[in-house]
Amino acid sequence: MNLPLRTLILATGLLAGLNAAHAIEFRSVSKASILYETPSETGKRLFIIATGTPVEVVVVVDKWVKVRDAGGTLNWIEGSALSPRRTLLVSADRATVRQGPEAAAAPVFEAARDTVLELRSEPASGWVQVGHQDGLSGYVRVTEVWGL
Fold first, then answer.
1. Would 66 be classed as within a structural domain?
2. Domain containing 104: what range?
3. Residue 44: which CATH number?
4. What is the pLDDT along the chain (148 residues), one digit of tens a residue?
5. What is the rounded distance in angstroms from the CA atom of residue 25 to the CA atom of residue 91?
6. Cα separation of 116 and 112, whole Å?
7. Domain count of the chain?
8. Could you give the count of Cα atoms lying within 13 Å of 52 in the half-sphere of its Cβ?
9. What is the pTM of this model?
10. Minimal CA–CA distance to 131: which of 86, 94, 82?
11. CA distances from 38 to 42, 61, 112 (A)
């Protein structure tokens, strides 16, 4: 095998490994917390994010985590305010949570936009199992929630 071809194959393999290592990570806010403009307690305080809100982890710098919310806004939060517990945010105007992972399944409840739901299982075939804080659970279409 000639050197340029070998180098190309090696570089392709390394890039594929880098992409796999940078999978999207979601976490949930464990307690109402302040979001900052910069990774510092002396930075500008922007607003308070509610308990249970899912966020996408963008980068971690020491005790600070840059997160993206469902609206696409980037802010900083202290890492101690995040939980590995996963939640989802209803992104549709109304999401119907059903007894099974199919459109013909009976509805269990409807959730309005911005309702926080607990992730109960990984998505499969376009559906994800969720739970509501009131104890109800079922399946919702992955296109109707954010945080996966």
1. yes
2. 87-146
3. 2.30.30.40
4. 554 544 444 444 444 444 445 578 999 999 999 999 999 999 999 999 999 999 999 999 999 999 999 999 999 999 999 999 999 999 999 999 999 999 999 999 999 999 999 999 999 999 999 999 999 999 999 999 999 9
5. 18
6. 9
7. 2
8. 12
9. 0.81
10. 86
11. 8, 11, 32
